[in-house]
Predict the 3D structure of the following.
Amino acid sequence: MEIVVCIKRVPQTAEAEVKVDPSGRDIVKDRLTFDINEADSYALEQAILLKEKYGGSVTAISLGPAEAEDTLRIALAKGADNALRIKEEDFTPLDGYKTALILYNIIKDLKYNVILTGCIATDDGYSQVGPIIAELLGIPHATLVTELEIKDEKAEVVRELEGGLLERLEINLPALFAVQTGINEPRYASLLAIRRAAKKEIKTLGGADIQGEVKSLSVLEKLYVPPVERRAEILSGSMDEISEKLVQIIKEKGLL
Amino acid sequence: MAAKKSVTIEINSEIRDALIEEGARDAYKCYQCGKCSSICPWFQVGTYEFPVHRLGEETLLGLLASSEEKDELAREVDKIYRCVGCEACIDQCPLGVNIPKILRAARRILVDFGSYPETLKSVVQKLRNVANPLGESPERRGDWSSELNVPNYDSRLEYLYFSGCLPAYDVRLKKVANATVRLLQLAGVTFGILGEKENCCGEAVRRIGAEKVYQELTKRNIEVFNAVGVKKIITTSPHCYTTFKKEYPDFGGVFEVFHITQILARLIVEKKIVPQKAFKKKVVYHDPCTLGRQNSIYEEPRIVLRSIPELELVEVENFNHNLSVCCGAGSGGLWQDWQRDERIAEVRVNQLLATGAEVIAVACPYCLQMFEETIKSMGKTTPVLSVSEILYEACGEVF
């Protein structure tokens, strides 16, 4: 089975103080740590699990700056066979469509039975890249995948829907799956594999390798911190009543 | 009788060399006598087997964290992150093999590849981002002192008081910084703080293996210290103390460093602080690893406690001074999610409580936090107080 997995290097912002830079279109990144996008780390693990079960090879692709090669090297250390960086610097600025179009241009010439992506990137949150690649390739796709099994050239997938519902689908291969976090348990890279990965080649492709024009469909106008809405409510009653009201509010806000 | 299983081990000299390069040279000294395994706090916990004496050999054979099997590898990485850096093993080793440093070599390689526990990744993230492990805003780092009338440090003042991260932000530990400042003011010591210019010393993040983040923090602190002309530093935490004293000189930061208990002991000997209010309790002092075993500061905290009227100081027989058992918070242990029956702090709390003490005295913010949380989870109520807080209370009538 030939598997392609798209991964992205992103700044870790979940617990960080995020500030908008003077351009107003990006965040200040000099005090942030970078890592593989969370959902992509699950996509990578799923790719390696599929390879372990059905054989074949895994190709990891990242459209990113030179530093994205660190992320690709992690993919190699975890079990990817090939790594390919597409030079982001040749294409910026990027929106979801343009990113997908570039990835499509590369993937279409590769062998693949399964393409995996994360279901969302934690930096721009577009959730577009996976489905657009699939549409451009003319293959089926499923998003928010929480289970993935392959049987006789078909994939059995479970998707996570709103309201706690799950959806089971049978999909013909080749297909693309945008996986949800939690679908598996991403592995560590061993020191042995890290040493091996250090010697592997990371292929780079740039603007000259893409045929035709690639254009964005949207333009990022402004990035900003939403104005703070001040709302305070003081709960009264017994401890039990207060607790109950609090739980209710937390539920209503969708925090639970 | 079961047939003997033969195992073929493939030696990987490349991994060995990589580990040696990252600082694991001590592995060559180890002859696997096993003293380290028996003194390791995990041996006392009993529910987790940690064969420390094999780590040197595993390093030389290039077997450390090198399993190709996913679950086994996860156990190996977990093992590398079990070390809490208490250094009891180094203390007992006939050849002084630095096991924590061997493990740190492996950690450095793993961290570079994002192959380490998620909880620790989050700590590294916060330290890089806001220079404290709590993820609090740097602008609020000096807020704890707002009602204490502490000046910002300038070179006319004798000491820089470096509160450290937990005493700057944690609600409970702010009280320790508070008591410390009041005592120094009472004794007429001239000192200032850095407020929002203070960064984490970097001790924990270095021991987690994130060397680059450590060096960034170190360089920033040294720059700040030099810019305001710092010569002498007082720290709340033994961890900041040891880092400034033993590790900053490698980066050109040479300062005279004191742990707060050293300063307080001297002020008591010089009669600049004379506790008058009785503290009529049985108090057990816990030697923090980093203050005691790693820096030989055993007597000063005891001088402070003995100076307090009616305070009965008791000792954990056989497990004090260099044989004190770690609280489990060092080298990233504070943020690890170990199981309830896998907690080093519980072993130590039981030893401390077995003395019949009514109060546990500590001299390290990590120990304080670890013991308080553990005691609470054990359903007990014994208070844990810093030496500074007890002394402050004993000076109560003065304030």
